[in-house]
Specification:
The chain is an alpha/beta fold and 223 residues long. The chain has 3 helices and 12 strands, in the order H-E-E-E-E-E-E-E-E-E-E-E-H-E-H. The chain is 40% helix and 25% strand.
Length: 223
């Protein structure tokens, strides 16, 4: 093979290779653009779904907070009852213990300012960790009057009596239920008003829930 022939073949091969690269670039660029656009669209849709989910969650959380704030608690100290209202409707009634004569429950309108699950009790010269011996029981709902709150107990036999140091004691299972139903900011009225509103509310609550009646302690029972 002559030198001239070899040169022509090499040149032809180079031209062919370059044309192949040009073709790949020419056809590859739109394909790359198409793939890139698809990925961009997919990412945008994913972000949009996440944003939508987040917005829905925020609105649901806000609605739940507003619903909780629309509730109020009334405690009749003489009747030793705690009633949870939604608007004018009583939805739960619980038996409670209130302050004994030497350490009475304060009267007035307050708010829940703390929610503490499994609280630690800081007593005079003693600290009691969460557990079965804790005087605060399993939940603490602190009120806007310093040192007072609604809480559980390690002495359930005291419920229904004037036995506390001024706080509102509840059975642990009851305060755990109430804890999930109310939030910070809910109004709490501690009243010496004797039971017309409490008794009427209790009767109405049972009447309105004949298929799923509620006992005085707030627990559902079979009819």
């Amino acid at each position: 093979m002559s030198q001239q022939t070899r040169s022509v073949k090499v040149a032809t091969r180079l031209i062919s290779n370059n044309m192949l690269r040009i073709n790949n670039i020419a056809f590859g660029a739109p394909r790359a653009f198409y793939i890139g656009m698809n990925r961009t669209i997919h990412t945008t849709k994913t972000i949009a779904r996440l944003v939508t989910t987040l917005v829905i969650a925020v609105f649901e959380a806000k609605a739940e907070d507003e619903r909780k704030l629309a509730k109020r608690i009334v405690v009749s100290i003489p009747d030793k009852k705690l009633v949870l209202f939604e608007g004018d409707q009583a939805v739960k009634v619980y038996d409670v213990a209130v302050g004994k004569p030497s350490t009475p429950t304060p009267q007035g309108e307050f708010q829940i300012v703390q929610r503490i699950p499994h609280p630690t009790w800081f007593g005079p010269n003693i600290v009691v960790a969460p557990g079965k011996n804790n005087p605060l029981g399993t939940r603490w709902l602190g009120l806007s009057v310093a040192g007072y709150g609604i809480h559980g107990t390690n002495v359930p036999s005291s419920i229904g009596k004037a036995a506390s140091h001024g706080c509102i004691r509840m059975r642990n299972e009851d305060v755990e239920e109430l804890f999930e139903l109310v939030g910070v900011g809910v109004k709490v009225e501690l009243s010496t008003y004797i039971g017309e509103e409490i008794n009427v509310s209790s009767e109405k609550l049972v009447t309105d829930n004949r298929r799923n009646p509620v006992t005085g302690s707030g627990r559902t029972v079979n009819p």
